[in-house]
Amino acid sequence: MPNRLQFEQSPYLLQHRENPVDWRPWGSEAFQTAREEDKPVFLSIGYSTCHWCHVMAHESFEDETVAEAINRDFIPIKVDREERPDVDAVYMAACVAMTGSGGWPLTVLLTPEQKPFWAGTYLPRQALLSLLQQAARLWREDRGSLLTAGEALTDRLREAEGAGTGFPDRALAGMAVGLYARSFDTRWGGFGHAPKFPTPHNLIFLLRYARRTGESQAGAMAEQTLESMYRGGLFDHVGGGFARYSTDEMWLVPHFEKMLYDNALLALAYTEAYQQTRRPLYGEIVRRTLDYVLRELRDFQGGFYCGQDADSEGEEGKYYVFTAGELRDLLGPEDAEAFCGWYGVTETGNFAGKNILNLIGREQVQREPVRIRPLRERVYAYRLERTCLHRDDKVLAAWNGLMIAALARAGLALDEPRYRDAAVGAAAFLKRSLTEENGRLLARWRAGQAAHPGKLDDYAFCAWGLLELYGVTFRTAYLAEARDLTARLLEQFFDGKNGGFYPYAADGEQLITRTKETYDGAMPSGNAAAALVLSRLARLTGEARWRTAADLQLGYLAGATRTYPAGHGFAMLVFLEELWPSAELVCAARTMPEELAAFLREASRPELTVLVKTPETAKPLEELAPFTEAYPIPETGVRYYLCRNGACARPVDSISEVRRLLEQN
After folding, report:
1. Phi first, then psi: what are they for 39, rounded to 5°?
2. Which of 1, 399, 414, 568 matches a 20 to 30 Å C-alpha distance to 290?
3. Which string of b and e fits 217-248 if b means at least 16 CB within 10 Å?
């Protein structure tokens, strides 16, 4: 049997190259074969660090009987959802429409015309064999019913592409807060029941809503959740960083895989909380999260890998858990007693006889005993000797955009140049390795090879990251790159009549639907991120084209989010910046003044956009933001030009005067 996956770069596809299933990568050749051989398509979508994807692979795709049934009656296609989020989005929508829920591994049966007629998630071996047998029989004996079902579902998906229009208002943001409050777990933090997901973009919205409105409940819900997530096993107390989600209500037992996007977004949420509260604990969580990413997920060329697996030696979580006895052997009786007492380690354990380290129930987590840190470092070094976790070593543009934003914000807030420098390195990697000569983004890089045209999330998240990086470095190159990416978004992805961004470009591969997605998932909606970028570019540059597009996009999102605003936390975040007073500041000086950097560090002010004009940046800045041409650079000192809500104050010469102007009603 030919090995059709051997030349792929996706770690997920490569994991399946030795399967007896004759997998093919997604592409026209596979569907042409399906038409020629008159067979339906067996589509399997997952990702390399997905625990249940591994389970289904071992149970079924490595099984000769299952493989024989798939190869005989179907054309099997394997897709990495992280490389092809557009394909995943289409068929996940089909799964949700058919079953009411979705997840990975995603299993879909298609016609050779790519129309789904059955969809589901994980299937045990016997259930999969039964499905294969029935579907093959119906394809031979009652194909008309399958084709009718496929046509009907495709029509339903296409009908869902539209969305109402409106205009965002403060009541919509307030409605979202009310919905979060209704599902809030007052004991353990978080929302809803187990399993619990971090959804850090919702927490950032709640923190900013509390700050803008003075409604303390929103901030209290966010802070309780942030502290509870850190206390539990969701946070890796030995090596830093967060797992994907908690399987229980108290955040103790995680699904142990770690993903780049979760850690980027959580770093942003804890940075926001740190800037609002100045609690040292939040700053420490940011450092330990980003230090984990820099230590274990960074490629030597500057990009960031996707994540690490939950399993080692065939067991989920084995890498992360300890017995009390092995910690005594490692640390000695006295140090082990202190370490185990701090992290809740017992002889009986809390996870299959072993221990997930945690701080649940401890009163003062911010007052860590001095002796704990060096002991933790010894335990970390010991853990490194265990069987290595599988690492998904592809670099995704979208996820790296999120990490650039997180590193830039944290570097500023914590006054840690190493985080800023890591963001600069990742931005250079994106430009060097994931950007074509014509300026178009590619979605994935691995082992020196880049592939797949960039999708909405790639452009939107990378542009967001570059805008955050400009706000830390004030290098106009980052502002120019963000502008260029956003211009391509408008050209290739935007519905200029109704608003909304499509998931893939107009000149890209056309799937059975081109649905505009607005709901947030584990990551924010690309449509909401694009709205944020448009809004900020409009305020930074004063250019009418960004304002026009932003208004259309905001109207589209207002219509799309009105039925359930709590499912659109990132869009609500954008509405906060648009609906409450904003301000624009231009700093003109010979060099970047340290007082401005200190001012920006002291608090989160997303409503304030800042440009810095120096002799070196004057010309490129005037091209990017033409209105800055009228602002002279003083021979000595600094001059600040502040505008609020369309009205400009007189120029002032110190940041203390800027602060006073901002505090005026």
Report:
1. -125, 150
2. 568
3. ebbebbbbbbbbbbbbbbbbbbbbbbbbbbbb
3-class SS of residue 7: coil
Instruction: Work out the angle at residue 43's Cα, subtended by the Cα atoms of residues 41 and 49, and round it to the nearest 5 degrees.
Output: 165
Q: Identify whether the C-beta of residue 493 lies closer than 8 Å to the C-beta of residue 458.
A: no
DSSP H/E element including 657: helix 655-663
Q: Minimal CA–CA distance to 294: which of 182, 160, 191, 410? A: 410
Q: Is the dihedral of CA 655, 656, 659, 660 positive or negative?
A: negative
Tell me the pLDDT tens digit for each residue of 477-497. Answer: 999 999 999 999 999 999 999
Q: Are strands 75-80 and 24-25 parallel, antiparallel or unpaired?
A: parallel
CB 16 within 8 A of CB 5: yes
pLDDT greater than 80 at residue 470: yes
> Could you give the CA distance from residue 361 to residue 7 in angstroms, rounded to a whole number?
51
pLDDT tens digits for range 569-611: 999 999 999 999 889 999 999 999 999 999 999 988 999 999 9
Indicate the burial class of 594 (C-beta count within 10 angstroms; 0-12, 13-18, 19 or more). Answer: exposed
Pick the closest to residue 230 from 84, 141, 360 (CA basis): 360
Q: What is the 3-state secondary structure (H, E, C) of 384-435?
A: HCCCCCCEEEEEEHHHHHHHHHHHHHHHHHCCCHHHHHHHHHHHHHHHHHCE
For residues 372-397, b (16+ Cβ closer than 10 Å) or e, as one string?
A: beebbeebeebbeeeeebbbbbbbbb
Q: d(Cα 82, Cα 393) in Å, to the nearest integer?
A: 12
Query: What is 304-371 written as a DSSP string?
Result: BEEEE-SEETTEETTTT-B-HHHHHHHH-HHHHHHHHHHHT--SS-SBTTBB----TT-S-TTS--TT
Please tell me the distance from the alpha carbon of residue 639 to that of residue 589, in angstroms, as a whole number. Answer: 6
Long-range contacts, stretch 139-144, CB < 8 angstroms, 24+ apart: 139/39, 139/40, 139/73
According to DSSP, the residues that pair with 258 across neighbouring strands are 308
pTM: 0.87
Contact between 555 and 167 under an 8 Å Cβ cutoff? The reply is yes
Contact 29, 35 (CB under 8 A): no
Nearest to residue 568, comparing CAs of 555, 557, 580, 556? 557
Q: Where are the alpha helices (DSSP H) in 580-629?
A: 594-602, 618-624
Q: What's the mean per-residue pLDDT of the chain?
A: 92
C-alpha to C-alpha distance for 450 and 237, rounded to whole angstroms = 35
Residues 117 and 175: their CA atoms lie apart, in Å, by: 37
Tally of CB atoms within 10 A around 255: 19
| Residue 629: how many other CB atoms lie within 10 Å | 13
506 phi/psi in degrees, rounded to 5: -65, -30
pLDDT at 67: 92
Helix 544-561 to helix 526-541 angle, to the nearest 10 degrees?
Answer: 150
Pairing of strands 638-644, 647-648: antiparallel
- Half-sphere exposure at residue 433, Cβ-oriented, CA atoms within 13 angstroms: 24
Rounded Cα distance, 131 and 57, in Å: 16
**Beta-carbon count within 10 A of 591 CB:** 10
Q: How far apart are CA 258 and CA 198, in angstroms?
A: 12
Rounded average pLDDT over 142-154: 82
Q: What is the DSSP letter of 651?
A: P
Element (H, E) at 451: strand 449-453
